[in-house]
Amino acid sequence: MSTPSLLILAGDGIGPEVMAEVRRIIDWYGAKRDLPFDVSEGLVGGCSYDAHGTPLTDETMARAQEVDAVLLGAVGGPAYDNLDFSVKPERGLLRLRKEMDLYANLRPAQCFDALADFSSLKRDVVAGLDIMIVRELTSGIYFGEPRGIIQEGNERVGINTQRYTESEIERVARSAFELARRRGNKVCSMEKANVMESGVLWREVVQKIGDTEYPDVELSHMYADAGAMQLCRWPKQFDVIVTDNLFGDLLSDAAAMLTGSLGMLPSASLGAPMENGRPKALYEPVHGSAPDITGQGKANPIACILSFAMALRYSFDKGNEADRLEKAVEKVLADGLRTADLLGEDGATPVTTSEMGDAILAALDASL
Ligand code: IPM
Ligand code: MG
């Protein structure tokens, strides 16, 4: 097979600084594991708007469609808050998701033992937590038509539309069931079938896919509000959660905080297989651009590094190498190394973004 290709879109805020550490890890795999990548770079978000007047150029969009995987840092920042909706940094990311048709967004919430005390929940509620939220990413209220702000009589009305087709629900349900088979074999589907027709259809279709194609996987359903409550009460009851775009946005932020820091969590957004059998894919940290700490060496590169681990696993079929990288991260955390987002314990060793990168590289070397 030819050298796998990666497009790096570091984006705004802390995106470039955390991505710099990922670049070193990518180079390490080329040098030490005979796993070279053909890396190209581009702009997305506010930096693309500054350079080209658009948060994503057609050329970059086309490149994203060609490569084996896209790695994205973060988009957005206060400088862009007042831009028109159509050119806001976030539109660049939404365009990538939509045009690449990345319908299954995998957001693991895993609590590293060394960090269990950082959670706002009690240690025994979160220690050992390992759940996966599968969020539908290309439809629902984020993209439904009609949308907009219209004039009605003497006032304005803001409109968005929640809309799901059966096939959109089917394909993301299959992604969730497939993942569950490789994990704890349980899926919990969340919607609000008590108030929304789209929720009624969602529940019916997920149940049908479960009954007909995955009878071996345990399936349950929950209203999304109750699901949010259960996530905070006893999150370890879950294995895979499958839900729509908006509920998934909210539930995954809540799940993220169970683990102590948003600076730890990776994500994968996957679409249909390409000709070479690899899924269309984009990997990004769950955290945002954190403009308040940009350029100070305070950012935690781990979420972005673990996103690359997900790329190794889901795009390049290198589960062993992904394990190696995840173990290296676990090792440095167990050794007490902490970026600014994780300070506060006795005996912790404060490190900068690049020192965290150094330590993970050293742990990788030690793994050989
Ligand atoms: C996320 C973010 C995005 C979303 C924004 C940046 C468009 O919150 O990936 O969760 O709402 O999907
Ligand atoms: Mg979000």
Overall pLDDT score: 96
Q: How much helix is in the residues?
A: 40-55%
Q: How many individual domains?
A: 2
- CATH superfamily label of the largest domain: Isopropylmalate Dehydrogenase
Order of helices and strands: EHEHHEHEHEEEHEHEHEHEEHHEEH
Cofactor: Mg(2+); Mn(2+)
EC number: 1.1.1.85
Subcellular location: Cytoplasm
Keywords: Amino-acid biosynthesis, Branched-chain amino acid biosynthesis, Cytoplasm, Leucine biosynthesis, Magnesium, Manganese, Metal-binding, NAD, Oxidoreductase
Structure description:
It contains twelve helices and 14 strands. It is α/β, with parallel strands linked by helices. The protein folds into two domains: 1-118 and 261-368, Isopropylmalate Dehydrogenase (3-Layer(aba) Sandwich), CATH 3.40.718.10; 124-259, Isopropylmalate Dehydrogenase (3-Layer(aba) Sandwich). Strands 2-1-3-12-11-4-5-10-8-9 form a ten-stranded mixed beta sheet, sandwiched between helices. A two-stranded antiparallel ribbon has the order 6-7. A hairpin with a 5-residue loop joins strand 11 and strand 12 (279-285). The longest helix has 18 residues, at 15-32. The model has no long low-confidence stretch (mean pLDDT 96). The structure holds 3-isopropylmalic acid and magnesium ion.
